[in-house]
User: What shape does this take?
Amino acid sequence: MRLLYVFGLILAVRLASVFVVKTYFVPDEYWQSLEVAHKLTFGYGYLTWEWVQGIRSYVYPLAIAALYKLLALLQLDSAQLLVLLPRLLQALLTTYSDYRFYVWTGKRKWALFLILVPWFSFYTGSRTLANTLEASLITIALSYFPWHGEGTTYLWPAAICCFLRPTAAIIWLPLALYHLRKSRLSVLELILKRFFVIGLLVAGAGIAIDTYWHGQLIVTPWEFLKYNIFNNIGSFYGSHPWYWYFISGLPTVLGINTLPFIFGLVQTVRKSEKFPISKQLLIAILVSLLVLSTVEHKELRFVSSLQPLCLYVASDVLSRWSYNASRTKLWLAAFFILLLNALPAWYFSTVHQKGPIELMPKLRDIAHEYRDERDHRANILFLMPCHSTPYYSHIHENVTMRFLTCEPNLQQQENFKDEADRFYDAPMHWLRSHIPAHPRTSLPTHVVLFDSLRDKISEFLTSYKLLHHIEHAEVNKLSDSQALLNEWSSALGTKPPNLTSLLQFVESRIGKAILVYQRLQSGEENAFNRKDFQDTEQPASAIEPEEALPSQNLFN
Assistant: This one.
């Protein structure tokens, strides 16, 4: 295949993901990149505790901030472009890394196919996540690794990757040892003249950048390891058993590609002499999974950087299998892999957790246009789990906003609870304690919440009218899910698992829809909400917003 054609094909897929993917994945996509860049460029925004404590590097946000500054100078800094262009930038980097993967694998058709179709790559390849950047840099570095011959070019992207994401060093340690063992250069010369020099230059530049922007001498990789690994702060945000990456994390990221990867793993173990590169990659994968498994807090994105290694192993064995496979088997295998990647890619990119992304343009219009009876601008309160939505980067209006924070227990206080937990323990008590009720104009002009919270704060909402109802995600009732599992387990003769602890958080704090309420102005009578509050026979959740809000404004 012509390289230009291949690059164009990869580019088309990655650019398509920019415009197709319209769902929310994890907070870091916004709060550790776009929000930081917006604060740096425009002077207002919010920095999370990680930036206050200095455990994050400014290198990636500065690249986005440079893009924002250019837009501001050209007077093109609309909220739409502030959201779109960083994703395009990340999509271009992912495109280049995918192209380098194709070159690295010997320009095999299976390699091109496997790097294009994974659902997780489509879902995250254009997201402004440090993990997406990490995966791209690792792929680029692997493509320059001296698998045959000599070379140290790979050390530059590898060093940058390790500075931005210190856990990436786990992947590179076994590969660096392999390089030292196979190189014709002496170990001392390779370490002192290559590894040390390149590492020192990259670390020096990174430390200089972070020291300037943090305002003090700081080594962010050390701070990252100190807080997240040594102090285990990450466990505050959830923990999983040690084997989670093996049975759930990595298989979920790979999806149906887990099958060809396992096929490649078995073949490599059985005939390691025929798969020398796959052998080294499997060692790196195993070491990474073992080390990451010792950390309590686990997420899918933490193993996304292993995907290119796994796909190389899969493409290597499939390319050899293709020599003896019939044309029918080849087409069936390709169709099977494509279909079972396309389905989750479509669902997670367009349906699941789409609410926050659809919410932000509506809040942007409110922030731009709304004025209350005193001609004051909007004042928005988010009563949701912390970081459930993007923030100023998607609104780009300097209005007052507040959300429930969730800083970890940095001071090691006994019986510590963050603000979000305190709110959900007693929502109305928190509102009475933190939100002044009189005069009415002291209330937030707009309140954003999941529908699961509506009935719990119905008294507070009597001062508001429903403005928007936005579909978010399917959240099943615990009883329904548990009953279904009980039936399946009974049929199989096994003990059913208990979903209560697993889904309790989801059902109590997340909902099927996001609701936006607007404060009543002088002279408005909120008959609908008062009826909800007083009518104990019919819960508010049973009333559809479309029925509750007629097309004409009857509140005046």
Q: What stands out?
A: Strands lie at 379-383, 400-403, 446-450, 464-471, 513-519. DSSP finds 25 helices and five strands in the chain. The chain has a mean pLDDT of 89.
